[in-house]
Amino acid sequence: MALAPGDLLRDKQYRPLWLSILTSSFGSQITMLAIPLTAAVLLHATPTQMGLLTAMEIAPFVLFSLPSGVWLDRVRKLPVYVAGELAIALVLASVPAVWALGWLGIGYLYVVAFVIGTVATTAGTAAQIVLTQVVPRSRLVEAHAKNALASSAAEVAGPGVAGALIRLVGAPVALLADAVLLLFSVVILRGLRIHETPGAKVPGQFWDALKEGLNFVRGSRLLVVLALTVGLWQMCYHATMVVQILFATRELGLNERQVGLCYVGLGIGTVVAGMLGHRISARIGTGPSLLWGCAICGAGWLQLAAAPANAWGVASFVFMLVCFGLGAVLIFINFLALRQAVTPEPLLARMTSTMRWLILIPALPGALLGGWLGEHLGLRWALAAGGVGALALAVCGWKMTLLRDLRGLPSAAKE
Length: 415
Hints:
It is globular and about 50 Å long. Helix 1 runs antiparallel to helix 6, helix 5 packs antiparallel against helix 6 (171-189) and helix 11 runs antiparallel to helix 15. The protein is 79% helix and 0% strand. With 415 residues, the chain is mainly alpha-helical.
């Protein structure tokens, strides 16, 4: 398909960034399945242990997001992004080595999850800021939609391949493929040329800089509403996410390859949202689009909680993944664009780290709650709790916040 004359993918700066996202996204499909399948199938983890595994990846965001934002506003972002991709490649490559030596246990997976979360706390924030250095702010929704399309292309082709690879060589060894793809991503990113002068307008004292970022977010009604809305959605999401693989393998009886094929549904949902998300936001507004994303996710989780343990249940599992792919993209292309649009450049890292901190604080108890519900009441209860919570959030957000009337991207506050 020919690109339109003004398409972002014609931009010589944005195109390699998009290719890097596409490459690393293919690898992420392997890790997304391999780590929980290693825990659930190879190590026979309980729902509580699955919740703890997710919590270990979230914990670094809660612990390190705020200080990392102050640090990032003082340094160049692209080298941090590149170093993060390399670090995750190395830690993933360590898993098959430890497994071959006979030392792999749930404790080591906790360590891997914590390291990945720690790296993502800094490198993930840096990656979001790199996008604003490459793309004009007026085109951020379009850029995030294209990034989602890159991820969704991987999510269509990736899970089936990942499931077959995991079935063939085992989940721990399959992680080597993600490590290799991350190395390719590093090579692509090193070709980017971004000029910035970090720290030029950042207070010299660490605590002064930290408080400036916190005060900026606290002083913006829009950012407070976004943090509350997406934070509560994260709680619902993580409550359901920790039991999804267990539900697929233990309730529906699927093997690794079949789970991978089901996850193609996630890619279908994200492809549709990646292609149409920008148009949907332009038609109904950024705020309503975000709230509809919450509702779609909730409906998917709730219907799975009631699904029978047969072929219809498998279809329900796939439908849930389609809903999640569609809903999550609608949430995040608007959430990211809105928060970046209202923030002056010198505050971007501190705003980003503060917002990530705020929205992931609820994710930690959400993951633990989902694990507890799954173990003590049943896996369906965790899915139902997340589904009801997300639907209630969408309704409350529509009736009680400014998001209902938010149509376009606001302007950045004056520096």
